[in-house]
Write a structure and sequence with these properties.
The structure holds two protein chains of two kinds. Chain A is an all-alpha fold. In chain A, 70% of the residues lie in helices and 3% in strands. Chain A has one domain: MetI-like (MetI-like fold, Orthogonal Bundle), CATH 1.10.3720. Classes of the chains: A mainly alpha, B alpha/beta.
Chain lengths: 285, 254
């Protein structure tokens, strides 16, 4: 290596100079254009046939608040059912047993292959084909009494969600290195124990972003349960506008609540991601 | 002659067309340190994985401590053992992998206590105390609460050795334990293995570290194309090999 005095001359010393700020002229132009468009849309709505007083009055109406609670209860329960089913089906799908594999594949095929609203209507109208349901000799009941809007919506949404969640879970489990499974086996773990203790916790890190996405979808999918009389947010908003004909105002009320709920869920998802990023260098940001 | 701890008899294993093991027979005595050497694809790793039943043999038999592995004789036929029985047999062997395979979501200490607590049902406090003792033995007591990602490759492999030892195995299997390490980290892992060998542990080591084999191994086995070409005392096989193939392999490696 050459020493400093032996280096070639003619190159100025840059070490003391500061970097100039960039102008970003296009960004300011874009901001201005967006503001103009937003102002135009805002003006159109302000001058349109919307009675904003109705929006603010019904935003906190008791029926609407009850609707929100029912929406959240249904979204949480159906998602819980979906995750339980999804994990079980994903484990079956990845098992070496061909019978379990086929059952899992058939489930996913059936419930992903038909529209959710159709499944909800089928559950709700189950009484048409099975007037009484139960376990022969032990218990039976009239299907109309059992298949309430609540139970129909829970089964319809949860079982459908399970079909999608199983694929998310399967992808997560496949993302874990096969060496992890071998290491678990080497310390004497069986298949299910290795899945529960070693594979699934690592898969969680991968599946939480898509599951958060699925849950946000679920919050909005509960609105489909309005067709089977489940009193969630949209259903209650509809009931109000059937009476007072303020259709757009009440749809705006419902829309604002959905937006608020989803906005709260996003940071919650980040907290969960941090929790499962334990031991990973790539900390969720 | 005393009964060997491991008796391998006419074991063959094919992966499709590829013959990974071709009628391999081998004995390992209690307390013996045996190094398996050979080119990649020669079957040495497969042989190790068959002993730990991560791979199932096609034919032949492996006996560990007098017990046939993975199979049961009944009515002149062989029956495969249940997954649970196989898991039980695996407890007698400890395995150290080339790529460490530590559980990344658990600390060094939790990696070591996982098997004793979850599989053997031992008390958490006892398992922790023993795990700390093992971490001291591999020189990593200070890293008990570190996650694998915070450890160097050499440190991870030492934790992996401690994790295998925590199950109190009769036999330790090492599958190229230093091949994935930066050169300057190989020594610390080999030092732990030497200490283990001195303590009387029975060890089977697949390795490319001929220096380690020469210094520590009682027996060296040279494999090629799924078969054992030559085996004997380390000094003989490495110093004065009888077979031409062994000689050419050694001259290529050194």
């Amino acid at each position: 290596m050459r020493t400093a005095d032996a280096l070639a001359g003619g190159f100025p010393d840059l070490s003391g100079m500061r970097l100039a700020r960039q102008a970003h002229r296009q960004r300011w132009l874009a901001v201005a254009a967006i503001l103009v468009v937003l102002a135009a849309i805002g003006r159109a709505f302000a001058n349109g046939q919307i009675e904003w007083s109705y929006v603010s009055r019904f935003l906190t109406a008791k029926v609407i608040l009850e609707g929100i609670v029912n929406t959240m209860v249904m979204a949480l329960l159906a998602m819980a059912l979906g995750i339980v089913l999804g994990v079980v089906v994903a484990v079956m799908r990845l098992s070496p047993n061909p019978v379990l594999k086929s059952v899992a594949a058939g489930y996913t095929w059936l419930f992903r292959g038909t529209p959710l609203i159709l499944q909800l209507l089928l559950w709700f109208n189950l009484a048409l084909i099975f007037p009484t349901i139960g376990i022969p000799g032990l218990w039976s009941a009239r299907a109309v009494d059992v298949m309430t809007p609540f139970l129909s919506a829970l089964l319809g949404l949860g079982i459908n969600q399970g079909a999608y969640t199983s694929e998310v879970m399967r992808a997560g489990m496949l993302s874990v290195d096969v060496g992890q499974y071998e290491a678990a086996q080497a310390i004497g773990m069986g298949r299910l124990q290795a899945l529960r203790r070693i594979i699934l916790p690592q898969a969680m890190r991968v599946v939480i972003p898509p599951l958060g996405n699925e849950f946000i979808g679920m919050v909005k999918a509960t609105s489909l349960a309005s067709v089977i009389q489940y009193p969630e947010l949209l259903h209650n908003a509809e009931n109000i506008y059937y009476a007072n004909s303020r259709v757009i105002e009440l749809l705006i009320v419902a829309g604002l609540w959905y937006l608020l709920v989803v906005s709260i869920l996003t940071p919650l998802q980040m907290l969960l991601e941090r929790r499962f990023a334990r031991g990973s260098q790539q900390i969720a940001r | 002659m005393t009964k060997p701890l491991i008796a391998i008899r006419s074991v063959s294993k094919n992966f499709g067309e590829f013959q990974a093991l071709n009628r391999v027979s081998l004995d390992v005595r209690t307390g013996e340190v045996l190094c398996l050497i050979g080119a990649s694809g020669s079957g040495k790793t497969t042989l190790l994985r068959c002993i730990n039943q991560l791979t199932f043999i096609d034919s032949g038999g492996i006996w560990l401590d007098g017990e046939l592995l993975g199979l049961r004789e009944e009515g002149a036929r062989l029956h495969r053992l249940s997954a649970q029985q196989i898991a039980g047999q695996r407890l007698k062997t400890g395995m150290v992998f080339q790529r460490f395979n530590l559980f990344p979501h658990k600390t060094a200490l939790e990696n070591i206590t996982e098997g004793p607590v979850q599989v053997q049902g031992r008390k958490r406090e006892d398992a922790r105390a023993e795990a700390m003792e093992l971490l001291r033995r591999v020189g990593l007591a200070a890293k008990a609460d570190a996650y694998p990602a915070q450890l160097s490759g050499g440190q991870q492999q030492r934790v992996a050795i401690a994790r295998a030892l925590a199950m109190k195995p009769m036999l330790m299997l090492f599958d190229e334990p230093t091949s994935a390490l930066d050169p300057e980290l190989v020594g610390e892992v080999l030092a732990v293995m030497k200490e283990l060998a001195r303590s009387g542990m029975t060890m089977m080591v697949v390795t490319h570290e001929l220096g380690f084999a020469r210094e520590v191994a009682d027996t060296v086995v040279y494999m090629d194309h799924g078969a054992i070409v030559e085996s004997g005392p380390a000094a003989e096989v490495l110093g004065a090999p009888r077979e031409v193939r062994t000689r050419s392999f050694l001259s290529a490696v050194i």
